[in-house]
Design a protein that fits this description.
By secondary structure, the protein is mainly beta. It has a single domain, classed as Methylamine Dehydrogenase, Chain H, CATH 2.130.10. Helices cover about 5% and strands about 40% of the residues. It contains two helices and 34 strands. A hairpin with a 4-residue loop joins strand 9 and strand 10. The radius of gyration is 23 Å and the shape is globular.
């Protein structure tokens, strides 16, 4: 394989005695009255892009996985300004990022009711070159009592989560001299330790930057890699905690605290009008990358000596923008650059071979998350689909039309509530199973 450069017994149990019988009766009464839970459901927040572990998975349990014909109950609907930004949720607060008129708006809602708690606004002049909407593309990131956003023009903002008060703001792309990308800024901020990590795409060694999260000061910068639409992830690989980027040029792995570039490898289509958009996937010491435009997918093992290619398949899985999800040796990903050819595919992570594919073009290009052994899928035409996670076959359990398209922001799941959106509307659905 090529290596790339290192940069019982029968005694009395007590239940046959009079006292034992009274104890059993008391337990039955408690259970019947609902005061005794046999297995309490687990819940968690969704504070950043791709969720709490940056892998598109939720550890929640006790979810409603047998949907009625019209789908899960809608708790509330919130009209928004135009945007492709997915929501994030922490501590009962949901943060939405959208555009109203000539302003980018960071808005905090009560996650349970949809009530607006505060909104912070600043001017924008972004105009999309390809006539898509002019709203933000990237997800906010909640870190403790702060929330960070990166707007379509490259304005990086830090706000108080409780009040919306501005802590600091800087026009990062203007400061670094970053040229406007195809579709504006799409990478979401990633908070790691005391830094915000971004593939800013600046010239003169400012392709990737680490920014002090308390002040907005640039702490380090590295590489001349242009900006992609792929949000980096941070993982422990071997003995080190590493930040894994898929930039406009390809793979770059850096030390997140110092910015030292450790590994790099080109991975991009030769087509000028092409993008890298799906985030890397890391399983142990293996990094998986995928992109469309004829490039395909690759699995790379990271070693102290360098990175080595395990396999590269051009046609088996091409992620356009949705990040694949890894579970128990298999990848579940969205394949296809165009709507009519889009499929959900299951790949063997060890070999790159396709195990199954969903019907072609059925729901367009989907985004999804994984919870309790199921994929919760949002098709770009507004279909919400429930798919059983099974490497043996594609098993669709439910499907309901929920929104008008396009729906390009991935869903978010927090504390039993599912949040999905199109360009101008956010919907909250109740996935808490009846007690």
């Amino acid at each position: 394989m090529p290596a790339y450069a290192n940069k019982g017994g029968t005694g009395d149990t007590g239940l046959t005695t009079r006292a034992g019988r009274r104890a059993v009766i008391a337990l039955l009464v408690l259970a019947t009255s609902g005061r005794l839970a046999s297995a309490p459901a687990r819940a968690e927040d969704w504070p950043r892009y791709l969720g709490p572990r940056q892998d598109g998975t939720s550890a929640e349990t006790g979810l409603l996985l047998d949907w009625p014909a019209d789908g899960p109950a809608r708790l509330w609907t919130k009209p928004l300004g135009r945007s492709y930004s997915p929501p994030v949720v922490a501590g009962g607060r949901l943060v939405a990022f959208h555009r109203l008129g000539d302003e980018e708006v960071v808005e905090c809602l009560d996650a349970r009711t949809g009530e607006s708690l505060w909104a912070s606004r600043y001017p924008t002049q972004y105009v999309d070159r390809y006539d898509y909407n002019g709203g933000p593309r990237s997800a906010p990131a909640i870190d403790g009592d702060r929330v960070y956003t990166f707007g379509a023009e490259g304005v990086l903002t830090c706000l108080e989560l409780a009040t919306g008060r501005k802590v600091w703001q800087r026009p990062l792309n203007r400061d670094l001299g970053v040229p406007q990308n195809f579709f504006g800024v799409g990478v979401a901020p990633v908070v790691e330790g005391g830094l915000v990590l971004l593939n800013a795409g600046g010239p003169d060694g400012a392709g990737i930057v680490g920014i002090d999260k308390g002040s907005g000061r640039i702490v380090w910068k590295t590489s001349d890699d242009g900006a992609s639409y792929s949000t980096p992830i941070v993982r422990r690989i071997g003995e080190r905690r590493l930040a894994v980027f898929l930039t406009k040029r390809g793979l770059r792995i850096v030390d997140p605290q110092s910015g030292t570039s450790l590994y790099e490898m080109p991975f991009r289509s030769p087509l000028y009008e092409s993008v890298n958009a799906a985030s890397p996937v890391v399983a142990g010491d293996v990094v998986f990358l995928s992109t469309a435009y004829g490039v395909g997918s690759i699995a790379l093992r990271v070693t102290p000596a360098g990175i080595e290619c395990l396999w590269h398949k051009m046609r088996n899985l091409q992620n356009h923008w949705a990040t694949s999800l890894y579970f128990e040796g298999y990848l579940y990903g969205a394949h296809g650059r165009h709507e009519k050819e889009a499929e959900i595919r299951c790949l063997d992570m060890g070999t790159g071979e396709v195990r199954w594919a969903s019907p072609r073009g059925e729901i367009g290009r989907p985004t999804f998350l994984m919870a309790e052994g199921h994929l919760i899928v949002l098709g770009e035409r507004g279909d919400l689909v429930l798919v059983k996670v099974d490497p043996a076959a594609y098993r669709q359990k439910a499907r309901v039309r929920l929104l008008d398209g396009p729906c390009w922001a991935p869903p978010a799941l927090a504390n039993g509530l599912l949040y999905v959106r199109n360009e101008t509307r956010l919907v909250c659905l109740d996935l808490r199973a009846p007690k």
